[in-house]
Design brief:
The chain has five helices and no strands. With about 120 residues, the protein is mainly α. The chain is elongated. The protein starts with 6 loop residues before the first helix and ends in a 10-residue tail after the last helix.
Amino acid sequence: MFDRFKILPQMWRTGRLALRLLRDSRVPMAAKFIFGATVLYLVSPLDVVPDWLPVIGQADDLMVLLAGLNLFLRSCPRWLVSEHEDALDGRPTPEFSAPRREGRDQDRTIDGQYRRVV
């Protein structure tokens, strides 16, 4: 009976992933526009199928939400989506891993020469 509700945690996780990606400045503006258009359609009083129809109106909004989230996630760079998925799952990524204890100051020093070109 409760097998139908197994999709709810996945939808919650996808929503959290979309919000994390939306706040990331490395996501292209076109992808953010897709997310904004989806939200705008959901809050708009104009619908393809009116919400006052008992089941069909709500199913229409649910389908638009799922399609919009899917299109938003597909339009984001795959490496960036993977990075945020790892962070949601609690897996460390190279950017967030703890620095090494021994010799870490030597690793950060860069020796070089420069000249000014006028």
